[in-house]
Every structure is written in structure tokens, then in C-alpha cells.
Amino acid sequence: MATQHHSTEPAATGLGQRLFNPIDRRLFLRYSGLTVATTGLLLAGCDDDDDTPTNQEVVDPANDPNASGAVNFGTGDFRVLNYAYALEQLEAAFYERVVSNFYSGISSEERDILTDIRDHEVAHRDFFKKALGTNAIGALEPNFTSINFSSRDSVLTTARTFEDLGVSAYNGAGKYLTDPNFLLAAGKIVSVEARHAAIIRDLLKPKAKGEGAFAGDDVVNAQGLDVAMEPRAVIAAADKYIRTNLNTNTLPG
Amino acid sequence: MNIFELIKRASALDEPQPATQPASRRDALEQLTRLGRGAALAAVPAVVSGLWTKAEAQVPAGEPTSLLEILNFALLAEYTDSTYYQEGLNVNGLIPASDRAVFEQLLRNEMAQVDTLKTTITSLGGTPVAKPNFDFTGGGRYTNWNSNYQTYLAVAQAFEDLGVRAYKGQANKPALMANKPVLEAALRIHSVEARHAAEIRRLRGKRGWITGIDAEGSQADIYTGATPESNTTHLGIARADYTTVAEDKVSQAFDEPLTGVEVKARLALFIRP
Lengths: 253, 273
Fold this sequence. Notes:
The complex is a heterodimer of chains A (253) and B (273). With 253 residues, chain A is mainly α.
């Protein structure tokens, strides 16, 4: 990512500036392929001294993946497992927070469901930590400032986001695993994430079809295929919930 | 991204191999394994599709090995689901009005998956297995499957939880791991099955996840097998060595695979010979 930034960054264009402000960096990561191509066109008329970072490339230190101390996912299958571990940490932290102080007016059914999911995500997190051993990334610091934990709607829509994102992540990353045992382990987990996603969706839109339903048209396409996203795009989408700097350089996709 | 384009592109990259005349299916599969994917794509259709289209071999006993065997095996599972939902929706008064939208969504997904699998099989030069005739009474176990909604739901849960286990058991086969676009498609169907299973469980008033080997009134053997749903040891690490979360919750947190042979044995109950 750093290499792409430096080799394609126009020295002083509005687009370049926009790309690296903290908000649009997520969009940059998500659409990096397209963005790089676009900025490449703009480069034709720009100074070609593009190896030197300029003032326009200043990144909010809290979001700089190359800051010293940024989490590095590692290489090979471990990078994929660490990526899953990062997402499980995020989910576990979210549900731990939800369960520690439920939103007001919660039904006993919703309480049971969210407590179960908390337990599942903690088990996933603990499993990856143990399985990765000395290769494991450290504990991530979440950033839940955008979530209103006293609001049912805020909690459940965030839960839906996390669960669908988790499904996307595993579905998109499976192909990068080379050890069949790791792929099986990931497979054991992703279907439980999908179960969570369906149940949370049903709480938000009970017994529905179409958009927003348990296996709705917004997540299952016309070919009957569930969501899948490449690792860097997933991290970009999760970025607003993570305070720790993540270095996605070694992630595939 | 169009998966079929990707598959065609992947197939086009494979070098054609000299024609072979396999003496038996076992020989053929051994040969395919030796020759690798390029040969498999060229040689499998003649070997495998012949087996699958024979009426008496709709559910052959062996473990799916080649990509086309795996995909036809998956197609059989999707036929089961889509036919079950279509027939259920066709029965007046079986599915309450309040729940029909769920089954319409289920059917839409399953029909799309049938089409996707058929197109994928054809793209790879194979022949999609024919849709078998089903016996949704399960050989007389569920005689009221189409007159009692609770029975209908229990059987639907069995099919969906079985589907999740079936895809999980195939995903890490060498033939599938070697074809990334098809692997990704299979994973994306796998998670849809899990969404379906959870929703049907919810319609039954149950949790969306599986606790131990508890069938909760659905079919018991769907939850057992060589690796039962109660398993909490993963990558050789026992539960107590990675978490303090309680055993039953950890069993819910991980779904378990069934082998192709195990799935076929369970599906065979619902397929007319």
C-alpha cells in the first residue's frame, strides 16, 4: 500500500489530498485498484518526483498503516488467520460491550441471542489466539465511538454490519489459505457467523424477503452467492471501529 | 465479477492432455490425480457424468473427489432444498401466511444456486446430474411433512443443516482448493445454507445454532458423524486449552463437516431409487 501511495500520488492535486485524509482513506482502500488507475491518468501532467513523500501525503497518525508499531499480519497462511483473528477480536469486544450493559427495553430473547453470540465470538477469538501462538498479532484496541450502545437500532445494525462483514471476509479469504486444515477451521467458523447474520437480520426485519432479510437480496446475489470481499477492502470497512494502526501491506487482495 | 467468466478463463489456461482410456473409475480418478487439474477438466466429464446420470447411481457410494463430482454432489443437495421449498409453497395452507415470505426467499436462493451449479458444471465441460425423484416422507418417517407445518420445518432444518455440513466437508478437497473461483463460489453457497438453517431454526422457536448433537426434534443423524456437531477440538487444540467459554457454547460456535459419504447416506433416505 505504501508503495502504491508513493508511486502514484500526484504531488498537489485535490484528489491526492482527498485520498489521504482520514475519512477518505477507507474509500481509497476499498477502491484502491480503481483509484490507482485514476490517479495514474492524472500523473501525466504532474511532477514525476513521486518517491518523496510530500506534505499532501500526511496521514492522520492514528490511521497510518505504516506508523511505527502498526500491526503487521505476517505472511503465508498466518496472515490470513491473523486477519480473521483481528475481526474476531473486534466482534468479541463489541458483544462484550453490548452484554455488559444491554440497551434499555431489551427482550429476554434478544438478551439470550446476544449473550450466545458474545460467547461464540469470544471462543473464536480465543481459538485463533491459541492456534496462532507466537505468530499472533497483539490485542487490537477497538473504537466504538460511533455506536450508541443504549440504542437497540444502533446495536443491532452494527451487529448486522459486523456479521455480514465477517461472512464476506471468510468467503473472500478462503482461497488464500493453502493448508486444508486451516480452510476447514475457517469453514467451521464462517457458517456460525452466517447464522448470526441471519438471526440479527431477522431481529431487524422479521420473517422477511428481499432487502434486509435473513438471506436478503442485499447479501445474496442473483446467482445465490453470499457476500465475499477481499481482505484489504474488509479492513478498510472495519477501520472506523479499530483504533490500532493496521499495516495491510502483506494482506492479499 | 462474473464467476462463469473466471471459470472459463481458468479452464482455458489448462493445457490439453493426451486422450486416455481409463479402465475403471478408480483408475480414472487415480490418473486424474496424477495428471493434475488440466487433465481432470478434460477427462472427467466422460468418466463421471456417465455415473451420475444412471438412475441407480443417483447417490453413488463413493466420496466425491474430482471437481465435477463435488459440484454434482452439491447440485444434488440444492435440488433437494429447492424441490422441498417449491413443493411446500405449492401446498395450500401448509405454510402460514406470516412465514411465506421466508420460504419465497429460501426458494429464490436455492433456485439460483441450482442454476449456478449447473452453469458451472457445464462451463467446466461436465454434465449436470439429473434431478432425482424425492420422497420427502423419508421412507415413511415424515408422512405428514406436507400437512403438518412443524414437521415441514423440522425436515427443512435437517436439509439446511445437512447442506452446511456437506459444503464444509468438500471445501478443503484438493480439487476444489485448486480452482479458486469455484472454491469461492462454493464457500459463498455454504454461508447461504447457514443463513437458511438459522432462519428455519428461528421459525421453529429454536436458537439459530447447533448445541452438541441436539437435533431439537429434527433428524438425529444430521448432527452425528465421524466429526459430530458436539466437537470442540479444532486444529488438534482441545477447548480447555484455548478458552474458558462453556463447552455447549463452544460447540455452538463451530459447525462441523460431514464427509460426502456421510451426507449421501443421509440424503439417500429422501431419494427414490
